[in-house]
Design brief:
The structure holds 2 protein chains of 2 kinds. Chain A is mainly alpha-helical. Helices cover about 75% and strands about 0% of the residues of chain A. Helix content of chain B is about 40%, strand content about 25%. The chains are: A mainly alpha, B alpha/beta.
Chain lengths: ~270, ~325
């Protein structure tokens, strides 16, 4: 059917079809190893249970806010920010096994290798969020926001995850092998934790609190709390007052920087 | 088959990484329908050459055509005509063997139905039908390699590149892969394989290029290479170590060009190059019998590819050392 198309149209057609072929492969991974989803969600779930039930009793986030209403949206944001590890590891595995080289030696659309990764990661992230939302509901968390606001909050979470795909692709291409990919956790952990995910930055030492406030993860976490109608104690610094704006701007900045870097790194594989 | 009769042609390939010249004037001409071995030590540039010929990396100089198309200006045309099996079995370990082949078929832009049919054919051809619905992570090394080869054969490529296809396989896995390569070659596929196993190059290849330091040192049939390196040798194994000097003296009489026979005392073996094969053998046998020397074994031997390889790579090292010495001298 593609034979009737002009060359550029044909290229675009195959870019989409090839991307979908790659996405189908990644979805098959999820079906073949559902335990993988469980493992990847294990960390956020365990940590939220720890924070809510173990530390939660002594956590005072102020203004009579229930800690779990503060922590559960934080868990959503944390899971999204850890997501770049999943991207990076998937990229390293394909690179190390030679699958990336096989793709590159084939007459398929070269962009599909990267776009396929992106689309599957977003679908994977949406699945993660669905599972986490169910767990949150069981614990007793509720969104008091409007339906539209709640959906927008999930969209913001996916937007954050989308921007981190490109950091993941870049790190995956820079990482020599699977073993060293585990070290990325040393980056992921502070990136997710030095933020407003589990504790308000105002309770941190000033210098650390400033870093936490300006962390993109905080902007998303604060804004979704707002949208879920989970009242939140915020400082009056500019950054904390503008989380609605920054929850959109941060992911756009990250994408604008790291998407070109990731694509360039991918093209430089042929150096 | 291309107009030139060569499926792969390359001239003066250059590839540098920083100061290091991975390829330094590499030439190649692979006749269509043959199995062509690139033999060389690690770091000789074999893999770099294959990666350039399969459009994975760009060349810094020279030109290369694969299946009649230029790798630099027509990479898409080249990709339609090649299959690549790299150093790792490049298959997805989690989806099944069949799903792998169907996925690669779709990415080669076959229709869903054709991709399914082709997967079925390839599973049969590479005797993987029984394992079709299992995950490659549970496969043996040889099976995984066969699936890897099958994935390279989706479009029945004109040229199949195999980069160290049996590295890391047990003997059984190696012979499985060898059988698969042979049957592909019988089907008319041109095969370019790199290896540092000499027996592999010897057994599989119609022609061999010895690669060292980024260029090919020589190129010939396996038999031709062995001939070129000094022809046949006569070899005598004495029953008693005490007889070795006498044996050496006798062998010296027939050695070509007055070459000194070499003696391996531990194995009680004396050998020397000979020109006139059978007369030399008969003469040595008769003289030794007359002298009352008991011989355990006597015969004519072609040099092994190991010897060819070592001699050739040694020569190219000597040459480059001589070159750098020249430079130092002229600098002084």
């Amino acid at each position: 059917m593609s034979d009737t198309l002009a060359p550029e149209e044909r290229r675009a057609y195959w870019a989409v079809v090839d991307c979908w072929t790659i996405v189908r492969r990644d979805l098959t991974h999820l079906v073949k190893q559902p335990s993988l989803v469980a493992w990847q969600l294990g960390f956020p779930i365990v940590s939220v249970l720890l924070f809510v039930y173990v530390f939660g009793s002594s956590m005072d986030v102020g203004e009579g806010v229930e800690y779990k209403d503060f922590a559960l949206p934080g868990m959503f944001a944390m899971t999204m920010s850890f997501g770049f590890m999943n991207t990076a590891i998937a990229v390293v595995v394909d690179k190390e096994r030679g699958v990336t080289d096989r793709f590159r030696s084939m007459p398929m659309s070269p962009s599909a290798v990267v776009t396929g990764r992106g689309v599957s990661d977003i679908l994977h992230a949406a699945l993660d969020l669905a599972v986490l939302a169910v767990i949150a509901l069981v614990i007793g968390w509720r969104s008091d926001g409007s339906l539209l606001g709640t959906l927008y909050a999930f969209a913001l979470l996916l937007l954050l995850r989308f921007s981190l795909i490109w950091i993941g692709v870049l790190l995956g291409l820079l990482t020599p092998n699977q073993e060293s990919a585990g070290n990325l956790f040393a980056v992921a952990f502070p990136f997710a934790m030095i933020s407003s995910v589990f504790t308000p930055p105002s309770a941190m030492p000033d210098w650390l609190g400033a870093i936490a406030m300006w962390n993109p993860v905080s902007a998303t976490a604060n804004e979704i709390r707002e949208l879920y109608g989970n009242p939140l104690p915020l400082g009056d610094s500019w950054i904390e007052q503008h989380s609605a704006l920054m929850a959109v701007v941060w992911p756009l900045i990250i994408t604008a920087i790291f998407l070109p870097l990731a694509v360039r790194k991918f093209q430089n594989l042929s150096r | 088959m291309t107009a030139s009769g060569y499926s792969v042609e390359a001239e003066g390939l250059l590839k540098t990484y920083g100061d290091k010249r991975a390829l330094d004037g590499f030439d190649l001409a692979v006749p269509s329908g043959t199995v062509y071995g690139l033999l060389g030590p690690n770091g000789a540039g074999k893999t770099t050459a294959v990666r350039i010929l399969t459009t994975l990396i760009r060349l810094d100089g020279g030109w290369a055509r694969v299946g009649g198309h230029d790798v630099s200006t027509e990479p898409r045309q080249v990709r339609r005509r090649i299959g690549l099996t790299g150093q790792n079995a490049a298959v997805d370990e989690i989806i099944t063997a069949r799903q792998n082949l169907e996925m690669f078929g779709r990415l080669f832009h076959l229709s869903a139905a054709r991709a399914r049919r082709r997967a079925e054919e390839l599973l049969e051809q590479f005797t993987l039908t029984e394992a079709a619905d299992k995950q490659p992570k549970d496969f043996s090394g040889g099976m995984r390699r066969r699936l890897d080869l099958a994935s390279s054969m989706i479009l029945a490529p004109e040229v199949l590149f195999l980069d160290e296809p049996t590295t890391g396989l047990d003997p059984r896995g190696r012979s499985e892969v060898w059988d698969a390569v042979r049957s592909l070659a019988e089907g008319g596929t041109t095969v370019v394989l790199t290896t540092h196993y000499l027996d592999e190059a010897d057994k599989l290849s119609d022609r061999i290029a010895v690669v060292d330091q980024g260029r090919n040192v020589t190129e010939d049939t396996p038999a031709g290479l062995k001939r070129a390196i000094g022809g046949d040798r006569i070899e005598v194994v004495a029953a008693e170590a005490a007889d070795l000097p006498a044996v050496a003296k006798t062998v010296a009489r027939v050695a070509s060009g007055g070459a000194e026979p070499e003696t391996d005392a531990e194995e009680r073996r004396v050998h020397a190059p000979v020109a006139d094969r059978v007369p030399a053998l008969t003469e040595v046998a008769r003289s030794l019998q007359d002298a009352g020397v008991t011989v355990e074994d006597i015969g004519l031997r072609r040099p092994t590819l190991d010897e060819v390889f070592l001699t050739l790579t040694q020569q190219s090292e000597d040459k480059s050392e001589a070159k750098s010495e020249d430079k130092e001298e002229s600098a002084a």
